[in-house]
Design goal:
The chain has 275 residues and is mostly helical. 78% of the residues lie in helices and 0% in strands. The chain has 11 helices and no strands.
């Protein structure tokens, strides 16, 4: 098919071709910098270790004592994620109330007063700092401070997710309609009352949906944090990997997949119930 015939079918084909080429030109230096060589997975040096690694997974470990250990650590993983999200809300909700412009009385005249504006910026910068540091780094710090165990995982999730929730909550609240908010503030309502009766009702579904999504992410993160000693299923998975216990690793991976699937179903049910 020549260019004239193609242009009659799709007038934008030339523009699409240009942007695809530009994307490839920009992507190529990144692939070179990261030494991305997927074909090395199929080399003779890689096939042998890969096959031995996969064969070690069969059969999965199903001993009663081991399954009880996995069940206990799975429950601990969910507890770490839930406790971390709860503490993150303790950080995020007050930070949202202090940093959201539509809840500022001084901003009703157009320009926020200097002191509230400075406080708002400090809170927003604090949220940026919290969410800029990955929870894995926080976990490494807290493992040194409080020792190995779930406490480090809970604190790591609380700080990183507190920054994420506070930022997104503020964006959600400031993107909505504000006439009711202005009316409440103009008639003497406090910031908390205005939030509860003006902003929360019209944004509750979106706030809840994002919170539940972050809880799902926290469950996944809590498993990863276990690899640095923050407790839960991830720490046990790390121990079994170091011992080359492929059957135990296979069982825990299957349990983790089931856990993520159940968390996804639970979050979907919560979204429907609160919609």
């Amino acid at each position: 098919m020549n260019g004239a015939a193609l242009s009659r079918r799709d007038p934008a084909w030339l523009g699409r071709l240009f942007w695809i080429g530009a994307a490839l030109v920009l992507l190529w230096p990144m692939l070179v910098a990261t030494e991305f060589r997927p074909w090395s997975l199929f080399s003779a040096e890689s096939r042998g270790p890969t096959l031995r690694f996969l064969v070690a997974f069969v059969p999965p470990a199903v001993g009663g004592e081991f399954l009880w250990l996995v069940a206990r650590e799975t429950w601990r993983t969910v507890a770490i994620a839930t406790a971390g999200i709860t503490l993150a809300l303790v950080i995020a909700v007050p930070a949202t109330l202090m940093s959201t412009r539509v809840l500022s009385i001084s901003a009703m005249s157009g320009r926020m007063a200097p002191i509230p504006s400075a406080l708002r910026q400090i809170v927003r910068w604090t949220l940026v700092l919290l969410r800029s540091i990955p929870e894995l780094i926080w976990a490494l710090v807290f493992v040194r401070v409080v020792g190995l165990g779930p406490t480090a995982g809970v604190l790591a999730i609380a700080l990183t997710y507190g920054g994420m929730l506070g930022k997104v909550y503020g964006d959600i609240l400031e993107s909505g309609e504000t006439p009711a908010t202005r009316n409440l503030l103009a008639n003497g309502s406090s910031r908390l009352q205005t939030f509860a009766y003006g902003l929360l009702p019209q944004n509750a579904a979106e706030l809840t949906s994002y919170t539940v999504y972050r809880w799902e992410c926290a469950i996944r993160s809590s498993v990863v944090l276990g690899f640095v000693g923050a407790g839960g299923l991830g720490q046990q998975l790390d121990n079994s990997t170091k011992m080359f216990a492929g059957g135990e690793v296979a069982t825990m991976l299957l349990v983790f997949v089931a856990l993520v699937a159940l968390a996804d179903r639970a979050s979907a049910w919560l979204r429907r119930a609160l919609a």
